[in-house]
Protein 1
Amino acid sequence: MATHTGDSTLTHKCTEMIKLANIYLNHAPRHEKYGLCQEIRKNMYTVYDLITEARKKHTKKTTLRDLDIANEKLKMQWKLYHELGYFYYHHHKREKTDQEALKRYTAISSLVNEMGAMIGGWIKANDSKK
């Protein structure tokens, strides 16, 4: 089975994002443990699962669309996490500076954006096969 050349790179990028995200989410305010943090984690693993599905399926169009949607949700969830000020938290307390919080948000959003570009490229490559 031929796979898209970037799908293993996308898997690696997603793994890197999940590892970094879990560090940030573990420091979030305690009241978000079962709120936004849980939703972000669930969506990250959905993205990871959809990458795996798309790699294995012969017909990928629906899975790639779902992957693109899940990644966009993830992008919006991280934006909300940032706007709520949760990147300021360390060990469940607000301790980080503006610069540190922005650096954290930039790091995670860059990974999510890069994944979005890779997913878009995969969709285009899949569409051009028709």
Protein 2
Amino acid sequence: MTVVGAGVVGSAVALDLARRGVAVELVEAQPEPGLAASGTNSGVLHTGFDSVPGDLETDLIIRAAALRDPVLDALGVPVMRCGAVMRGSGVDRLVENARLNGVEVRLLGDDVLEVPGEAVTDPVAFTVALAAAAERHGAKVRTSQRFDAIAVGRVVVNCAGLHADDVARLYGDDSFEVYPRKGEFVVFDPPEPLDRILLPVPTKRTKGVLVFPTLDGHVVAGPTAVDGEDKDDWSVRPEARDEILPKAVAMWPPLEDAEPIAAYAGLRPAGRGVNYVIGRSRVVPDLVNVAAIRSTGLTASLGIAEYVCEILLGTPLPEPAPLLPGPPVPTGEWWRRTAELHAA
């Protein structure tokens, strides 16, 4: 079985399949896992308190939360369980939404909502750890290898992110289209410590500009949400800073006189009129598409992996083998690598 794409979703899928005894090859076009969308997001692990009850995306976010802690601990992936606060008109309407999703929240006054389960991780470390664990469990990980040929008689799981629609078209499947939604971030040396994630009230299109601490002691504000067509344009627009800063300062006034030390952009694989396209292709049943996984992919990755296993192996699923330990996961200023890589 071939899994295309060693982002956080593809790496999680490869690991889950390998732990259940499936012979897996994980193919990645980049030199290492996590260099594209997975390594250019916020690193925030959301709880799904504000997600639409009953949606597949919501179900997989919630399931991933139940699976995540033992995996993070076993793989040595760092996580900051700092919680989040949302301020703004209308936060009270999210209390019932959170209850329907089984997520703990606390209403502190009319316009302040506390979400204790929100957390921050290193998204690159998370992705690399999943891919390395998949390899320890028997998966073959092949980097710098673009998938451009149909694997005859072999099941293919299409986790190709921004290029998932291109992979599907190799099989004659044009049922969905993926386009890049650019999310730009600015990074600060904080003028004072920030001990939790600050959230705006979300819209149907975006979660809005967040302000959040990183594991390495910095503070990040963003993202923007700019729909485009160029899947290779990782640049930060000149106007991005002016779009982010006023919103960030309104949420956390200490940023008023702070000067950004870096900026980076992520390209989220948004679907054209669709979201979370996960299932067997109607054109070729041996192709399983896992596409249009937008910004919540990091959060939902373990739930997505289990769901894909159910599609391929049926239920009840075979119990996964215990996670094999490995060397410590390299961590650090992952955002700096991202900024420098795509600025080059």
